[in-house]
Amino acid sequence: MAQLCLWNASGVTVKGCDFLNNTDDGISISYRGIGILSVYLTDFNVSGRCTDPFCHNHDRNTFSKLTYGIISNGGNDVLIDRCDFIDNYGAAKIISSESLQFTRNDLNVYDYDEEPSLDYESFGLYLEGCTGYQVEENDFHDGLLGLVVYNSGQYTNEIYLNDFYNLNGNGVATGAIGIGINSGTRSPSGLHFNCNDFNQTDYAIGVTGGHLVIANDGLIYVSSSSISNIQGRSLFTGTYNSADNTFWLHGMTDQNDFYVDANISLYDQYRYNGAYDNLTDRDANINSFDNNLVSKHYYGTFSTREQECPSNLEGGGGVISIPLMVQKLNDKEEEILTLKQEYSDLTSGVNVNELIHLASIANSFIIHTVHNALISSSPYLTDTILNTYLMNENANKISRAVVMLANSPLPSSVLENIEKSNLSTGIKHYIMANQVGINILEKIETDIQSAKASKQFITDRLHLKYIHSDSTALIQEWKNMLESKNDIHSKEKLLNVYFSKGEFAAAENLLANLETELLFSNDSEKLSQIKVKQIELSMRQNGSEQSLNQSDVNYLNTLAEDYNSKSGSEARSLLMAAGLEEYDPVIILPNPNNQKSAMAGIAPEQEDLSRNQDVELSTLFNIFPNPASNILSVEFITSAESCTFVIYDIQGRQIRTIVKEESLGYLTIDVSELESGNYILYSPQLGERKQFVVKH
C-alpha cells in the first residue's frame, strides 16, 4: 500500500512532507508499505520546501521505516532533492527514468541486523534501465548497500561527490555496484565514479553479476556486467585525469576498493586513474584490487575535496550556466565533424565493401589480385578488412603477414586475432615486434567515440537544467534546439520532451523516423529500445494498459527475459506499468569466495606475443605458379632490410630488376609480356636462384 500513488499524473510536486510507518516494530519491513508510488509513467518533483525568502534553509521530506520510500516506474523527468530516508528496506527504486536528478539526500540504509533474512536485499538507491541521471551530494550510510546501477546501457553517466560510509559488517557490504551493461563495448562511454568518498565500507566499488533467484522469473542470469573501462576521464573533454575518489585505509589485500567479478566482466581489464595525495586517513587511489583485472595509474596530486571536486548544484563552484554549456555542446559537435572529415580524407581511396569481399574470398587462384588491391589501399585498411583477411585460412600466409605489416601499428581487435590466426609462430612474433604506436584510424575512431560520449553527457546535463528550470520559455528553447539536431541521442531527449508535454503526434512521427533510421544499422539493442518506446507511446496516448494488444505483450515478455540489456529493463518496466507483472530488484553483491580473478596465478595458455622485441625469421624464397603465364608470385623472408630480385633469360641476359624495401614480403611479377621459355629469378640477399617457366 502506498501513502501517495501517482498514476499518469505528471507535474506533481511534493515539498516538506513526512512519509512513515508508525506500526509496531515487530512487523516485517517487507510489509510496511511505500511512501510514494509512481507506478505509471509519471514525472514528479519531491524536494525540500524553502523556509526563508532566499531559500537558504529547507524543510526536508522524510521517508521512515517503510518497505520503499519512493518507487518510480517509467517517469521520464524525476527530481528527488533534499530528502531523508531512514531505515527503509529500499530508500528509492527508480526504473526507466531518462532524466533523474537525485541530489542532497540522506540515505540511512536499513539496519539488516533486525532481519537477517533480508541480509542481501536492502539498498539505498536502485537505478534500473535509467540514463541521463545526476546522482550528486548524497550520503549513503549505516547499512548493507548504498547504490545499485543496473543496465544503464552504453550511455555516459556519472556518480559524483557522494559519501558512502559505515556500509559494512557482513563482509560483502558495498558502497556502489554496477550490474549488467553500463558501458559501450569498445568506447570511453559508460558509468563513471568521480569524487566520491568511501569510508568504512567492506567494498567500495563493485562490478558484479551471475545467477540470482527473483520473484516472477525465478532463476535469472546476468552473464555480463560493466561500468566504463576507464575510470578517471574528463566527461567534457575526454582526456585522462584523476577520478578523485577517496578510499579509507583498510589494507592492501583482496579487492575492497575496486571489485570485479572476472566471470562476468565485459572487459579483460579496467583502467583506474587516481592521484597522489598528502591525506592522512584516505587514499586518492585504489590500493586493494585484482591487478589481473584492474590497472592503477596516477594523475597529479589530490589536495582537498573542496578544491578538486566543486559542486555542480546551485551555488557550487562547478556550476556551468546554460549559455556556456550550450557553447560546449556546439564545440563538441564541431570537434566530431572535424574528426569525421579527417577519417574520411584518410580512407577516401578505400572501397571498404569491395575489399572486405575480396579479403573473404581470397585463395591461391586470385591471391595476386587480392594482395595488390589490399596493398594499394594500405596503410588505411579498416579493422574489418584486416580481420577478414587475417582469419581467411585460404589466403596465402605471407601475403596476409605483409598486409598486416603494411598497416601497422594494427588496430587492437586485429592484434587480438594475431594469436588466433594460423600464421606461424615466428611470423606472429615478427608482426607483434613491429607494433610501435597506435593505429591512426583506430585513434581517430576512439577520439570520435570520446567526443560523442562527451556530447551525450553535455546533452543530458543540459536537459536536466532546462527541464527542471520550471520555465516554459526555457523548455521551449530546449525543444527548439533538440529539433535542430540530427544525432539519435538528441532525438531521444526530444522524445522525452514530447512525452512530458503530451505532444503525442510529434512523438509518433519522431519514433517512426528513428525506427527507419535504425533499420539500416547493426544496432539491434537501440532498435529494441525504440520499439519499446512506441509501445509506451500507445500507453500514454490511451492512458491505460488496455492499449496493449497481445502482440505488444508478447514482444515485451520476450524482451523482459533478457536481464543483460537496457531494453530488457525497459520492457519489464512497461509490463509492471500495465499491471501485468511484478519484478524484484536485481541485486548481486561481491562474492567473498571469488576474491581473485580466474586468471590469477594461472599461466597463460596462449603464446606470449610481446611487442618491440627483436625477432629473427628463417630465410624463405618461394615462387609459384610454375609454369606461369601471366603472374609469378614470390614469397620471401630475408635478414636484410631490403631484397632485390633479378630476372635472367636462359642466355644469362638481365631482363628485369625489382627492389622491395622490406624483409618479409609477397611480390607479384607480371610475366605476360615475356616470351615462352625458361628464366631464372635471382636474389643476392637471399643468395639463391629459382628457375621458372613462362608458358603462354
Describe the secondary structure blueprint for this structure.
Layout: E1 2-7, E2 12-15, E3 18-20, E4 34-40, E5 44-47, E6 49-50, E7 58-59, E8 61-64, E9 68-73, E10 77-81, E11 83-88, E12 90-95, E13 99-103, E14 106-109, E15 123-128, E16 134-136, E17 139-143, E18 145-150, E19 157-160, E20 163-167, E21 174-179, E22 191-194, E23 197-201, E24 203-208, E25 210-214, E26 218-222, E27 230-231, E28 246-248, E29 258-260, E30 270-277, E31 282-283, E32 294-302, H1 305-308, H2 322-346, H3 352-361, H4 367-376, H5 383-390, H6 397-406, H7 412-420, H8 425-433, H9 440-467, H10 472-483, H11 488-501, H12 504-519, H13 524-542, H14 550-560, H15 566-577, E33 620-624, E34 631-637, E35 643-649, E36 654-660, E37 664-670, E38 677-683, E39 688-694
Parallel strand pairs: 1-4, 2-5, 3-8, 4-9, 5-10, 8-11, 9-12, 10-13, 11-14, 12-15, 13-16, 14-17, 15-18, 16-19, 17-20, 18-21, 19-22, 20-23, 21-24, 23-28, 24-29, 27-30, 30-32
Antiparallel strand pairs: 6-7, 25-26, 28-31, 33-34, 34-37, 35-36, 35-38, 38-39
Summarize the structure.
The protein is α/β, with parallel strands linked by helices and 696 residues long.
